[in-house]
Amino acid sequence: MNIHEYQAKALLRSYGAPVSDGRVVLRAEEAKTAAGEMDGPLWVVKAQIHAGGRGKGKFKEAGAGEEGGVRLAKSVEEAADEAKKMLGRTLVTKQTGPAGKQVNRVYIEDGAGISKEFYLALLVDRGSSRVSFVASTEGGMDIEEVAESTPEKILSFSVDPATGYQAFHGRRIAFMLGLEGAQIKQCVGLMGTLYKMFLEKDMEMLEINPLILSDKGDLKCLDAKMGFDSNAVYRHRDISELRDVTEEDPKELEASKYDLNYIALDGEIGCMVNGAGLAMATMDIIKLYGAEPANFLDVGGGATKEKVTEAFKIITSDPQVKGILVNIFGGIMRCDVIAEGVVAAVKEVGLKVPLVVRLEGTKVEEGKAIINNSDVDVIAADDLKDGAEKIVKAVKG
Ligand code: GDP
Ligand code: MN
After folding, report:
1. Whose CA, among 54, 132, 169, 322, lies 20 to 30 Å from 193?
2. What residues have a C-beta under 5 A from ligand 2, the ion?
């Protein structure tokens, strides 16, 4: 689960990490008062969407002004004006995809004077099963690009959970960033705070890009991106309250209501599969035969007819879907339940694209009979390879 920058900064502030003063604004009329509560002489107006690269982003609509989703203003009036231009408009960045995201909130901040920009992140490193720090002198940049072109400018190490965070971890980062004197102590303190926060709040990712050295010589978190482990959010009421469903894919949101493991993707073949491993294998084999999956969907082991019906409806509601592959290996999941769900869903929403069904395992004969006795137009498949070949052929001709 992701949260907005202004929410992440409030959390940072509550842990004592240095961030600028700021106000979130939902309606244009509030912008001037909000900006007026800060002294200036510089204000920063920032579009709040769950995607990075806002500074270099572009608005779709005319009237949003020229620059991207992070703008500097030199007066209260100018700041309010920039906020008005952004609210309600659609910002497209490298991370939003071509559709972009509507800006429903802007954050007006007390602008900082920057002397240096750094990159800092904490993440769960699955390789070492530890929390890792990633730091770089190349702040404000796309870290993937830095990793590609100048990997020597990135420092990365993990923290042994047996010892936890130690001052030497912070010093390693401070020296890498070229900090001096009191800044080193500040860095050691800040890294410890971030590590503590990361663990206490069950984060998956915390990215401060840029972490800056201000013109006054202090460290400050100028941007903040936080992701939380969805499986642990139930332990943190304060975090779950920060969820902004308007930022989520409507199909994924609908799927989460039915407890379906669904992730929307860019391809043309909708998949309904049971089991995460089989779902991955199904996506792989679709790619192998030259097409792209439109989603990942694991209906799970104990899916009911209603759940399967909803899953099928979500798949067919995606206009990108040009064909559907149902691939079920019935172990705990029964093939007849899947068949009933598919037939019920087709009756309800109709079937406008080719449908390939591969059923195997528990109650497979009953499942096949349900489909054969319905008037659903199905292409039957014998195994995974056959299913993938048939759906790709049906879609690509
Ligand atoms: P992103 O583009 O979505 O990553 O948004 P950021 O919050 O990282 O802002 C993009 C860039 O705007 C930063 O790298 C800074 O160069 C600049 N910026 C953001 N806040 C301030 C500020 O308070 N003062 C100044 N001078 N520049 C800022
Ligand atoms: Mn940033």
Report:
1. 54
2. 209, 223
Separation of alpha carbons 274 and 97, rounded Å: 28
Q: Considering only CA atoms, which of 278, 272, 263 is closest in space to residue 323?
A: 272
CB count within 10 Å of CB 95 equals 15
CA 251 to chain centre: 14
Query: Cβ atoms within 10 A of the Cβ of 16, count?
Result: 10
CA 213 – ligand 1 centroid, Å:
13
CB 224 within 8 A of CB 122: no
Q: List, in order of start, the domains of the chain with CATH numbers.
A: 21-110 (3.30.1490.20), 114-240 (3.30.470.20), 250-396 (3.40.50.261)
6, 107, 119, 258: the catalytic one is: 119
Q: Which residues pair with 206 in a beta bridge?
A: 122, 226
Any residues with Cβ below 6 Å from ligand 1, and which?
A: 20, 44, 46, 52-55, 70, 109, 111-112, 114, 117, 140, 209-210, 222-223
Strand partners, 58: 92
Q: Give the 3-state secondary structure of 156-174.
A: EEEECCCCCCCHHHHHHHH
* Positive/negative CA dihedral, 285, 287, 292, 297: positive
Q: How far is CA 346 from the centre of its chain?
A: 31
Element (H, E) at 268: none
pLDDT in tens, the chain (397 residues): 999 999 999 999 999 999 999 999 999 999 999 999 999 899 999 999 999 999 999 999 887 777 799 999 999 999 999 999 999 999 999 998 888 999 999 999 999 999 999 999 999 999 999 999 999 999 988 899 999 999 999 999 999 999 999 999 999 999 999 999 999 999 999 999 999 999 999 999 999 999 999 999 999 999 999 999 999 999 999 999 999 988 888 888 889 888 888 999 989 999 999 889 999 999 999 999 999 999 999 988 777 888 888 899 999 999 999 999 999 888 888 899 989 988 998 888 888 999 999 999 999 999 999 999 998 898 989 899 999 999 999 999 8
CA 333 to chain centre: 30
